[in-house]
Structure formats: structure tokens, C-alpha cells
Amino acid sequence: MKPSIAVFNIIGAFFVIVAVIYMFATRFTEWVGIPAFFALAAMSWMISFYLWLTDRKFKTGPSDREDGEIEDYSGTYGSFAPWSWWPLGLGVACAVIVLGVAVGWWIFFIGAALGLFFLIGWVFEFSTGEHAH
Questions:
Q1: pTM of the prediction?
Q2: In the structure, what pLDDT confidence band is assigned to residue 131 with cuts at 50, 70 and 90?
């Protein structure tokens, strides 16, 4: 995890340097790109901070050891439902939302309602029915 923390810290510092150069290159007149670069730096450092907190809480990963191998990462990463249709419906709802932004707002609201339906279905997939926990 420590290499990932270092990478995101470097990316954040890079975006701060680019933001300062961009400020002087545009003579402080362009007020869209400047905050965007600083926001990118802040987001990189937020990810770095999250990884640092996670690294403190959990044991050292294979990437932190000199003799660590890729196969050391093998194991269970979570519980996934290969039979689930909810993600497909959510993807279609997202496509309808994008179509609604391009074509008409009434389509956007239909896509948002569909998205909410499929998102709730996916969240509560293991709460009811045959696969309830």
C-alpha cells in the first residue's frame, strides 16, 4: 500500500505545480482550469490519505515487501453475485440518463427513476428471496 500512497502524493504535487505554472501562463485570468488543477491535486491527496488510513488499520500487503509476488494477492475480495441482473439494468438506466441529457429532460427523469429502482434492487439483493443472508 505504501507505493500507492507515494504515487498519489506525487500526482497531487504534480497537479499543484501544473496549477501554479498555469496561473502564471494565463496571467490569473482563466478561472476554470486553475481551480480544476487544484481540485485534481486535492482529490489525489484524498485518495492518498484514505490509503494511508487503510494501511494503518490493516496488515502489510504484498506490495510493501521486497519479496512480494503478484500471486500473494490471491484470495477472496468480496461477495459477488454472478447471476445478478441488477447491474445490467443500472447500466441501461445510466444510458437512458445520458440520452435524456442529449435529447430531452423528460427522458432524463425516466432514466433517473429507473436508475433509482435498479440501484435499490442491487443494494437489497441479498436481503430478500432465495439468497437472503
A1: 0.54
A2: low
